[in-house]
Amino acid sequence: MTQITPEIVAEHGLSPEEYARVLNALGREPNLTELGIFSVMWSEHCSYKSSIIHLKKLPTTGPQVICGPGENAGVVDIGDGQAAIFKMESHNHPSYIEPYQGAATGVGGILRDVFTMGARPIANLNALRFGRPDHPKMRHLIAGVVHGIGGYGNCVGVPTVGGEVNFHPAYDGNILVNAMTVGIAETDKIFYCAASGVGNPIVYVGSKTGRDGIHGATMASTDFTEESEDKRPTVQVGDPFTEKLLIEACLELMASDAIVAIQDMGAAGLTSSSVEMASKGGVGIELDMNMVPCRETGMTPYEMMLSESQERMLMVLKPGREAMAEAIFHKWELDFAVIGHVTDTGHMVLKFNGETVCDIPLAPLADDAPRYDRPWVKTPSQPALAPLAESADLAADLLRVMGSPDIASRRWIWEQYDHMVGANTVQRPGGDAAVVRVHGTQKGLAISTDCTPRYCYADPFEGGKQAIAECWRNITAVGAKPLATTDCMNFGNPQRPEIMGQFVGCIEGMAEACLALDFPIVSGNVSLYNESKATGGGSAILPTPAIGGIGLLADWSKSATIAFKAEGEAIWLVGGHGEHLGQTIWLRECRGREEGPPPQVNLEKEKAHGDLVRGLILDGTLTAVHDVSDGGVLVAVAEMALAGNIGAQLDLLTTARAFGEDQGRYVVTAPDGVVIPNAIHIGITGGEQVMGATLTDLRAAHEGFFPNLMGN
Length: 712
Hints:
The chain is α+β, with helices and mostly antiparallel strands. The chain has a domain of 153 residues: Phosphoribosyl-aminoimidazole Synthetase, Chain A, domain 2 (Alpha-Beta Complex). Helices cover 34% and strands 23% of the residues. A seven-stranded mixed sheet has the order 8-10-7-11-9-12-13. It is globular and about 80 Å long. The termini are far apart.
């Protein structure tokens, strides 16, 4: 029997104070299996111990919300007895260590979060952050992540319809891979994870358990070090074809009334799934570890409980339904095993070879995990930007910005994804939001992921507001009514007060925007310790609260797109001229500076401008719509021109009016003679240029970055 030493406790990520809490909870020393279970359940990844007190500030309710945070995914009502179920999660550390499998299993995990609640997945999205394009590892990381996302999503048959990509040196040693899935379910067929019914059988289904992914949750709760490259065994290996079988088998069983509770085995595997089911149901659980299907010989209870092998689910069934359920899973060529039963003890008890190898009270594991109100300091305000000289050549600046890493076309990425599988994608990648038809109806779901990390770094409160507002704006720009969001909170080490201050600031800004825009957060994920000592010590990512939002179109055929539709149409700017150049792409790309405060977000104006534009889309007034964000008005017009292959004649334009990133704005077009209320006429469509840059040169700059970087 392994002796529990301070070194072993530290290897499991528990502080001396936390280990003292373990001793108090058990009234004795834990064995190695029990220590492993406490370590993963009390990890940052599973317990949110540094973030939970601040997450409670976020608005999570509304008339459209069926289920908010606390389950596998959020659920919102989309009418006609249907619900949208969605969530975003991170797979950052695994994707840096092994980019293909890290990204692939990130997609697999978020798919399971959604279909475990009874939804058929209809769309995947992702939010990716990479370091400097010329960093020696970056091409390898980009290629692996994109290939992993495409390889898993394409094979499982769920379209990847949208996302975002940023580059910044702060991600050199710690890239971010955030994956989002949206599914559709019937409102009377939503499944939850709370176990009930003493004596009810606990069933394991899906793939066999291996040794891959052991300590994955613990690894995701610490900084990277020079030794992180050695952690490949903690990265799971995915099989999308098995996941497809698992989706179909689970949905088939869900059509019966056999399931009492269901939970996917995600982070911390069998441990987290069984603990969450039992604790949420207020019951106990007893498992026979000899019954767990294993693909490797000699696996110990410790390894079985901490493995994060993919494509596995845990269920509580009604008594007597085991044979029927087993027949379904065997038909789909998946493992099925009764591995335990529900008890009334309030304990997790594990048996192995006839002996009790674990006996832990569940309350300390779940409800009494450590909660920290960590010290934090407010991010200092950025000094105002000094007056800047006018650009000597707006056309040259536009070409430079259009070809820059954060603005360039992502076509190289999304053409590797099957974004049309299922035949319900009605707006493909490249616009403001993806639009996916709700099968068998005229309804459409608009979906977007958004965040501007450089804003969050300069001013976390305004950056948090802007992340919510831009997601709301992108959904509005296709004509949809924004419903709700999910988040993925990517930050550095929370034990550093300046990092914790970034987190608190972003949360408070997000909360204010969610309330003002009626855009609650119904699910999410926190990923901390995104730092790399390997790049020179204390190298934290930019604060990155990625937001994934959904909205509803009553008639998907009325959705707006960004492309200019015809020559001679009027171009209007809704939201007024802007002149804010602090933290803009233009300032960075054309002047080599990252300075100044980010643009302010006036939420009252944001809502008024968005409601106006949405109404004009739905009544057929507008022919094209694009929100103004990175790069300002001139970039928005250039993207619309390229999408429609029609130029624009503009009468803006100072440098600040061209490239300012003031918020709450849209560029729209309408037939000549139609007047857009409360908007500024800025030009007409036509010709083969935008501000003196030809469409040919703009397209070469915009489309060239990724093929040139990746060598094809």
